[in-house]
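Sequence in, structure out.
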Amino acid sequence: MEFAKISLKPGKEQSLLRLHPWVFSGAVDKIDRNIEEGEVVEVYDFKNNFLGVGYFQIGSIAVRMIAFDKVVPDVAFWTKKIQDALAVREAAGLTSNPDTNAWRLVYAEGDGMPGLIIDMYDGTAVLQIHTVGMYIIKDTICQALENVLGSRLKAIYNKSEGTIPFKSRIDPENGFLKGKTEINVASENGLRFYVDLDKGQKTGFFIDQRENRVLLEKYSKDRNILNLFCYTGGFSLYALRGGASLVHSVDSSERAIELTKKNVALNFPEDARHQAYAEDAFKFLDKSKNKYDLIVLDPPAFAKHLNVIPNALKGYRKLNAKAIQNIKPGGIIFTFSCSQVISRDAFRKTVFSAAAKAGRYVRILHQMEQPADHPVNIYHPESEYLKGLVLFVE
């Protein structure tokens, strides 16, 4: 099979020699023929040495690499990729836990499959595709999934309507690609959550905080807890199970609050310890002086692009300073950033600055991260996006 050939400018091959999976548009010297977005290409250095295979896209990242040797990305190729990804989850014990049926099977660059997310919900694979290159081979991906999972695969759902670049020629619609299931509830460590496949954020549920919610449960007993940016109430449910005295869930979205209430009722019907509020998180904190002794700060990404990092850091600083100022003495704060472009060090320094601004003595008890089904590709540090701290505030 003949693929288009992309040649790089002198010196621009170094990142690929280190197995980083991105070729930036400024590194490209020439393309040997006209190509369409999403087309498979071979990449060469300026001396015509082969570097790897990827797919072409329009934008600052011109090629996303899928292999660093000569391959044909057919069904067998993708079957091996997905089988390797499954082996990681099996090693982590995620595929055999009877109390958890929601886990990530494929994490984009973390698993060597740029642009592709696959989450599993009790045998239903939910695809969220972020690039044209992956979208045009979705049928191949479906066949590979069937090859790997066999009878364990009940259905495949495409949830890419809002994730494909808006300037592309693709106009995806959410819907089942194979089979059909009524996924209403996901199980996580024995707790149950409603899943909104069509309209919910991400693939319908935030799988990536699973381990951090377990940690919060251990700190919850007899505490008054505030869960800000609660979305579906994940941390709130673990707090209730952990024996919290009261749990207040806050989100600016009325829809999120309604879903949180439904999830609480599903697990703790008529539990008077929980209340939910559709309010602005910053304003809610302003009126919460000495009311809570555990606060969860899990905001949406304040920065998705490099050019907004300074403003994002100001946002994190302001939010954490307010929480540190208002929490009871001896309180605990779980604080997170899910912004890929905010480094772990930058986030920690920002929280340090917030503590200094608040004028209280703060210690770090834990440093948190994304779970094993969101593995960080050591050659692609950008795949590390979730970082968090557990703080003790005197």
